[in-house]
Amino acid sequence: MSKVGFVGLGVMGNGMAQNLIKSGQDVMVYDVRPEACDAAVGLGAERAGSLEDMAGCDPVLVMVNTADQASSVISALSKAVDSAKGLTVAIMSTIEPQELRKLAGQYKAKGIDVIDAPVSGGPVLANAGQLSIMAGGTESQVDKVRPALEPMSKAVFHVGDAGQGLAMKLVNNVITIANMTLVPAALKVGLEAGLNLKKMVEVIKASAGNNFVIENWEMALLVMDIMIGNEASKQNQLKINEKDIRAFISLAKEMGIDSGAGAGVLSMVLSDDQADKALLDKFKAAMA
């Protein structure tokens, strides 16, 4: 397997890239913030001076925040890639399926196969190499990138053609974000009513309200610490949640569905009833 390129070493991408390196693969990394690559380079990755330097890698994994950023990455690669040799780019970010399909069509003639491979699990599981990955593309395209995906995941699911991985991710995300928003809000009310937090978690685990957040409560606290442990992190996470839910609603509309459920989750995300550091500190104290 040739050198693997990895673009975007943020909260999620850093752990993903490090697990790829630890698996023994030859990896080149790039981030607009050069210091974000330091840990990966310390483990043996090669630091790319520019995105164009990655045109010799195959595949290139992209973990950025937006569709515009993903498009900019592919545009830069297209200027240096050898179209005769070709290149596969796996977009691991959460963007809209139609945006992925547009990129795939736009760069096909330039020898770049664009597929989607979004992830689920959050930064704790990214660091542990235990993400779920939902891949969309042809069987041969997914098989080509699978060796680069497996070191960072507990499972790689091939769910269909290009864009289908993102459709699956949006379905999963609307459920995840609903749980991550509703569970802290509900437990907050329980605390104010005088209930014991440990007992609430125990009871919910044994009851119909059980879900991934409650089932993995201690890990959920670690994830919340990363995502909402300070105001800047909280606001960034709320923007990401809003983006993802709006993408789900857009997908539903594309399918001819007016998703009241999606609108309801969006309303929760935009409400003032959000977990914050003060509530997180209460949870930690109650679990001590």
TrEMBL record:
<dbReference type="Pfam" id="PF03446">
    <property type="entry name" value="NAD_binding_2"/>
</dbReference>
<dbReference type="InterPro" id="IPR036291">
    <property type="entry name" value="NAD(P)-bd_dom_sf"/>
</dbReference>
<dbReference type="GO" id="GO:0051287">
    <property type="term" value="F:NAD binding"/>
</dbReference>
<dbReference type="GO" id="GO:0016054">
    <property type="term" value="P:organic acid catabolic process"/>
</dbReference>
<dbReference type="Pfam" id="PF14833">
    <property type="entry name" value="NAD_binding_11"/>
</dbReference>
<dbReference type="InterPro" id="IPR013328">
    <property type="entry name" value="6PGD_dom2"/>
</dbReference>
<dbReference type="GO" id="GO:0050661">
    <property type="term" value="F:NADP binding"/>
</dbReference>
<dbReference type="InterPro" id="IPR002204">
    <property type="entry name" value="3-OH-isobutyrate_DH-rel_CS"/>
</dbReference>
<keyword id="KW-0560">Oxidoreductase</keyword>
<dbReference type="GO" id="GO:0016491">
    <property type="term" value="F:oxidoreductase activity"/>
</dbReference>
<dbReference type="InterPro" id="IPR006115">
    <property type="entry name" value="6PGDH_NADP-bd"/>
</dbReference>
<feature type="domain" description="3-hydroxyisobutyrate dehydrogenase-like NAD-binding">
    <location>
        <begin position="163"/>
        <end position="277"/>
    </location>
</feature>
<dbReference type="InterPro" id="IPR008927">
    <property type="entry name" value="6-PGluconate_DH-like_C_sf"/>
</dbReference>
<dbReference type="InterPro" id="IPR029154">
    <property type="entry name" value="HIBADH-like_NADP-bd"/>
</dbReference>
<comment type="similarity">
    <text>Belongs to the HIBADH-related family.</text>
</comment>
<feature type="active site">
    <location>
        <position position="169"/>
    </location>
</feature>
<keyword id="KW-0520">NAD</keyword>
<protein>
    <submittedName>
        <fullName>6-phosphogluconate dehydrogenase NAD-binding</fullName>
    </submittedName>
</protein>
<dbReference type="InterPro" id="IPR015815">
    <property type="entry name" value="HIBADH-related"/>
</dbReference>
<feature type="domain" description="6-phosphogluconate dehydrogenase NADP-binding">
    <location>
        <begin position="3"/>
        <end position="160"/>
    </location>
</feature>
